[in-house]
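Just scan this pair:

***
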Amino acid sequence: MENQQGQEPKKNSNVIYFLIVVIIALLGTDVYLYMKKNNSDVKIAYQADEKTRLQTELDSLEAQIEQVNTGKTKMTAEMIAKNDSLKAKIKVLRVALAKGKLTAAELSQAQEDVKQLRYFVTKYTADIDELKKQNTNLTTERDTLKTNLTTVSEKASTLEKQNQDLDTKVKVASALKVATTSVVGYKVKKNGKEVDETKAKNVNKLKINFTVASNAVAAKGSHDIYLRIIDPTGNLITGTDSGTFNADGQDLQSTYKTSIDFKDDGINYTVDWTYGSPFQKGTYTVLLYADGYTMGKTSVTFK
């Protein structure tokens, strides 16, 4: 009896120790599971935060690219290719994020891709800004050239007009002008002798006498002289010797054409003109032209 009683307390003590060990083991398991759950929740929360941050980054990058593309700067072929590449990369990352929870490796790779993307977008933006700056400089240079060209063109037009005016003045100044002029009617007898005549019915020849005013700028040498003879009724006399010429900006018909050798020596020139028809009573007007301008005018009256 005594031995049985002595073994009973020892057995109870062993049971208590066993229960304590079991309880400690259960507590350890709970703690382990709790810690594991917390770590998992933290990891999931971390991944969710990173996913949100990546999406924000992509939105920002896409907006930056879009802002650059809306500018009026004309991109080079290389920039267009880079722009398309950036858009494609962003699209790939969005698809990856849309799949849901990323693994640690995928998340790490996505973060690295975004860093690279940020670098390229920054460089791309800088390239566009530089291109805009160059375009602005080119536009300024173009406008400056246009202004300079306009100024040069205006100066050229002014100089051209001045040259034309000067050329006209030179032509006017170099044109021969009569100093003295007169016209006399003659009767040519059968023996060839010429006598002064004032009666219209007896006149069959005119002698136009003139001297040329001194002109230092006029060309020395031969000058064509055109005569226009107007009868008493106001009609221009024409014949086989008639022709056309230009003077004072007009095309005119001549009665007779001849030439003189101008030496600027003040000599007297005489032009003989024979009329094939009888002269009329009244005044005949003789106009002389040379070098494209009116040279002088004279007249004679027959009874």
User: Anything to note?
Assistant: The mean pLDDT is 78. The radius of gyration is 59 Å.
